[in-house]
Design a protein that fits this description.
The chain is of the alpha+beta class. It has helices at about 90-95, 120-135, 140-145, and strands at about 10, 30-35, 40, 55-65, 70-80, 100-110, 160-165, 175-180, 180-185. It has 3 helices and 9 strands; from the N terminus they run βββββαβααβββ.
């Protein structure tokens, strides 16, 4: 088994924006997520209401007294309509019924446009959701925890995701660059020594 600590991060450019494809355009699509503060979801009650009308990513979070951790992200999902999403959401209802308190946070996605244009917004949201699931490993996202983001019948994009707002006790990375390259360097003997 190869120890991950032996790997180095490849330096492909000075910044993510400068990693260019053959057409001279940035390879990585950029998305900023601004997470709301947690809103409690009381047992036997409707989901908390947010002032968000557009598609967003959401996280269901649990806290209970005997846990050694706090703000445990149990589920990450996407919705096109935050007002009606949770009326018939079996997994969400299951999480709310567990011991402890359950809360909900949402994050509208701000896509950086221009040369780095997003053509299919729905697919982009699914890719970002999947990458966040891989980063946080929520217990109730069973299928996507075991599938590599961007694989399947539709090819995925390279993403630079910036998470702002609520921090979930540090469980979500501040920035994610997916995919990137790790490597174990070999001994570089390319330089010739000067013979006297």
């Amino acid at each position: 088994m190869t120890d991950i600590a032996r790997f180095r991060v490849a330096k492909l450019a000075q910044s993510v924006e400068n990693v260019l494809g053959g057409n001279g355009r940035p390879i990585f699509k950029s998305a900023n997520l601004l997470w709301s503060e947690l809103r409690p979801w009381e047992k036997d009650q409707q989901a908390p209401i947010f002032e968000q009308d557009d598609a967003c990513i959401y996280a269901l979070v649990r806290n209970h007294g005997r846990s050694h951790r706090r703000d445990i992200i149990e589920y990450i999902g996407i919705t096109k309509n935050p007002h009606s999403r949770f009326y018939n959401h079996a997994v969400a209802q299951e999480i709310v019924k567990l011991k402890g308190t359950t809360s909900l946070a949402i994050a509208p996605v701000n896509f950086i446009s221009g040369r780095n244009n997003i053509r299919n917004r729905d697919m982009a949201l699914q890719e970002i959701e999947h990458i966040l699931i891989w980063a946080a490993q929520p217990r109730y996202n069973i299928k996507k925890n075991y599938t590599l983001p961007g694989l399947g019948k539709n090819r995925g994009h390279a993403w630079h995701i910036i998470n702002g707002g609520y921090r979930f006790a540090g469980q979500l990375p501040i920035e994610i660059i997916y995919p990137w390259m790790l490597f174990i360097p070999g001994r570089n003997r390319a330089l010739r020594t000067q013979e006297s």
